[in-house]
């Protein structure tokens, strides 16, 4: 029963991450459309890009819930955003035709990806703070780690005592 509830919370976190990423992607594409008036893409291409953003946001949401657990470590939270954003953004950069004059455009692509996951992070942080999505419990993990540490200490002490007796 506990695993089922955890799965439900993970799906909620993933869904929220997907929705936030999808909405922020649509907003960025709208802004890009007005700034770069000459860039036209097909509806199919935009639809696939939106689907990829939603799936990426879903995976980020599920992963982010497991990363942050109960403790609030801003470096860990920001690191998750940066890791997902860099992987997604750098994968979109075309290095086969690299030109130094295009580096600002490549930076913009990476920046958009980081912004996409930053928006998803803040949506998840808000929902976690309000209790709409429950954070992943840490107590079971810390108890199992503490138990395994006690076993290691006992084994070490036993081996040490055996070594002294010889």
Helix content: over 70%
**Gap between N and C termini, in Å?**
51 Å
How many β-strands, per DSSP?
0
Number of helices: 5
Question: So what's the oligomer here?
Answer: single chain
Outline:
The protein is 81% helix and 0% strand.
Defining traits:
mainly alpha; single chain; 166 residues
3D structure, described in words:
The chain has 166 residues and is an all-alpha fold. 81% of the residues lie in helices and 0% in strands. It has helices spanning 2-35, 43-68, 74-92, 103-130, 139-165. Helix 1 (2-35) packs across helix 2, helix 2 (43-68) packs antiparallel against helix 3 (74-92) and helix 3 (74-92) runs antiparallel to helix 4 (103-130). The model has no long low-confidence stretch (mean pLDDT 81).
What's the SSE blueprint?
Elements: H1 2-35, H2 43-68, H3 74-92, H4 103-130, H5 139-165
């Amino acid at each position: 029963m506990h695993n089922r509830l955890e799965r439900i919370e993970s799906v909620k976190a993933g869904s929220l991450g997907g929705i936030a990423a999808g909405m922020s992607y649509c907003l960025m594409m709208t802004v890009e459309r007005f700034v770069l008036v000459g860039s036209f893409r097909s509806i199919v291409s935009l639809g696939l890009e939106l689907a990829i953003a939603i799936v990426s946001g879903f995976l980020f949401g599920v992963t982010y819930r497991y990363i942050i657990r109960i403790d609030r470590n801003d470096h860990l939270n920001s690191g998750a955003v940066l890791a997902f954003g860099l992987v997604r953004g750098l994968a979109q950069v075309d290095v086969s035709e690299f030109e130094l004059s295009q580096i600002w455009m490549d930076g913009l692509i990476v920046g958009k990806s980081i912004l996409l996951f930053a928006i998803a992070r803040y949506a998840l942080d808000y929902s976690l703070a309000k209790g709409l999505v429950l954070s992943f419990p840490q107590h079971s993990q810390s108890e199992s780690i503490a138990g395994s540490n006690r076993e290691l200490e006992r084994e070490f002490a036993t081996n040490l005592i055996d070594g002294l007796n010889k």
